[in-house]
Amino acid sequence: MTASASLPPPNGVFVPVPTFFKPASPSTVQAAVDVETQVKHSIHLAKNGIRGLVLLGSTGEAIHLSRTERFDLISGVRKGLTEAGFPDYPIVAGVLINSVEEALEWLGDAKKAGAQWGLVLAPGYFGGAANQENLREWYTLVADASPIPIMIYNYPGVTNNITVSLETYTKLAAHPNIVGCKMSHGNVSHHLQVSLDPEIDHSKFRVYSGFGQQLGPIVFFGAAGVIDGLAAIYPGTVAHLFELAAKRPIEEGTLLEVQKLQFAVSRAEEFVGKWGIVGIKEAVYRVLGMGTLEGGRLPLKGSLPKGEWESWSVATNAMSTLEAKLGK
C-alpha cells in the first residue's frame, strides 16, 4: 500500500451501526443476522446526513459473528447502498482481534466485501502487560500488510484499560497506511493534542471521537468528527451539529445554535452511555421502527427494563423535535 493510495475517511459524522438480528427461532442456537434490515438502516443514515458507516465495530458486535456472517453483512450493505444510489459510500470495517494474522484475515475479508478502511482495536487481552513499544510494533505489522488503510481504535473499556499514548499516535501517524484514529474515552485533552500535534500530517491522519457529547469541543480544535452511537437513532441532528461546528469563521448566531444542539445531543448521549448496545437497538426500534426489541446476541440479549425508555422522554422528545425540524 503506497502513501498516495492511503487516503483517510472524510470528515463528518460516522455511525457505529448496531448489527440487526432476525427474531429468535427455537430451531436455531441464536438469532440470524438480518442483512435486509441492516441495509434499510444504512440507507436511512446515508439519506440523512451521515458521512459514513462503521460496520462490525464494538456496537456492531463483531466478536459475536462468524467470519461468513461478517462478510455477508458488509457485502450486503455495500450492494444495498450501491443499488440505492450511494456507490462508494464510506464503509469502515471493525477489526476486533488480538492476533496479527487474524487481524490481517479480517482486513482481507473486509476489502473483498467492499469496505475501504479498517478500524483496528488495540490488542487488549493482555492489556495490563502491553507496553507502548510493543503496541507500536503490533500496529506497524498490521499496517504493513493490510490491503486497506487502517485506523487506530483506542477503547480502554474493552481492552483492559490500554491507553494509546500521545507519543504512539505521533509515531504511528507517520505510517503511510495508518490514516486516523477513534478515541472512545473521555480524555478530551488527548483528542485535542493529537488533532493539533504539529508533527502529524492532519491531511492524512484524522481524529474521531467515539462520543457525540464531545463533538463540538473537539471539532473546534481540529478533530475530523465523531463515530457516534446516538446518530444511529437521530442522524440528522448529530450531522447538523457537526456541519455548524465545522463552519469557519463561525458567527455568533451559529455558535449559539451549536451550543443548543450540543446540549440536546449531550443530554441524549447519557442514555447511550448507560444502556449501550441494548439501548441503541431498542431506540432504533422505537424511533425508526427497525429491528426488534430482543437486543443483541448473548450476553447482550434482552431489552430495557419496563418504563426505562419512557423515563428518558425529556431528552428523546427533544431530539425527535429537532429531527422533525430538519425534515429527517
Automatic annotation (TrEMBL):
Does the record's keyword annotation contain Cell wall biogenesis/degradation? no
What CDD domains would the database entry show?
DHDPS-like
**What UniProt keywords are attached to this protein's entry?**
Lyase, Schiff base
Q: Transmembrane stretches, by residue range?
A: none
Q: Which SMART domains match?
A: DHDPS
What is the official name of this protein in its record?
A: Aldolase
Under the heading SUPFAM superfamilies, the entry gives: Aldolase
An example Gene Ontology molecular-function term? 4-hydroxy-tetrahydrodipicolinate synthase activity
Q: Which organism is it from?
A: Cadophora malorum
What domain of life is recorded for the organism? Eukaryota
Q: What is the lineage of its organism?
A: Eukaryota, Fungi, Dikarya, Ascomycota, Pezizomycotina
